[in-house]
Design goal:
This protein is of the alpha+beta class. 28% of the residues lie in helices and 18% in strands. The protein binds iron/sulfur cluster. The site of iron/sulfur cluster has 10 residues, from loops.
Amino acid sequence: MPQVIPIIPGPQVVPSAVCFRCDVCCRFPEQDSILRPYFTENEIRQAVTHGISSSSFPDHLGSQIEVVPHPNEEGFLCPAFDPVTQHCRIYEMRPLDCQLYPFALMWNAQHERVVLGWDTLCPFLFEQAVEEVPLRGDSLEPSALTLPKAFMEQAQRVAIYLESDHALNALALHPRLVTPFQPEVVVLHTLDRLTAALRSSNVHDTR
Ligand code: SF4
C-alpha cells in the first residue's frame, strides 16, 4: 500500500549507533506529552499491521500515539519502542514525525508561520552545534547556536521536500504534524508554501 507521506530524502543526520546509545528519543516524561509522535491514517494502518495495538491510536484517521508506562523506570515509552534492544519495532515504516527528528516542524512563536528547526534536546546535534556569536555569561541561548554545513544542507533538503506539492497536500490533510512552538527548537527555515496551504484551508489546528 503506498504511503501518504513517503520517506523523506537524504541521509539520516544522527548515526544509528549514536541513537542506540541515547536515552532521549521515544521516551516521554508525561503521558500526555505534546511530543508524542503523530501518525497519519496510513501510518496507523501500517503500524497496526506490524504489531502495534490499534488501541494505541485514539483516532484511526490520524492521532498521536498513546504512550505506555516504562517497565523499569519513571516516565513513558512509545509502544513501538523496545527498551531492551533500544530499537523501534516499526523503524522501516516509522511515521514522518519520527523520520523528521531531530528536525522539527512547528508554528513559530507568534503562531503566524510554519517553520523547520532543529531540536537542541537531541544530544548528538547539540554536541555538533557551534555558537554563532560567542556566549556572554553562562546562559546558553538556543538561538545562538548553528549547525555544521552538512546538517544545514540536509535541513535545506528536508525543507524543500516539505514544500513540494506532494508533501503539501499530505500535510494539509494532517495539520497536527505541525507542533506548537517549542522554545528548545532553533528555527532554520520558514516554510511559506506550507503556511499558505494551512492558512488557505483555515487550519490552525495544533496538538
Ligand atoms: S514510532 Fe519508533 S521512532 Fe517513533 S517514537 Fe515510536 S519507537 Fe520511536
